[in-house]
Amino acid sequence: MRKIVVHMQTTLDGRISNTAGFFWEPLVFGDPETLFVNDAFRSADTWAMGRGVYQFVVPYWEQVAAGNPPEIGGPITPARQEFADLLVGLTKVVFSTTMADDPDTGRVVISGDIGAQLAEMKTQPGKDIVLSAGPETLGALASRPDLIDEYLLVVHPAVLAAGPRLFDHLTRDLALDLVHAEVFDAGAVIARYEVRPPA
Question: pTM for this structure?
Answer without folding.
Answer: 0.94
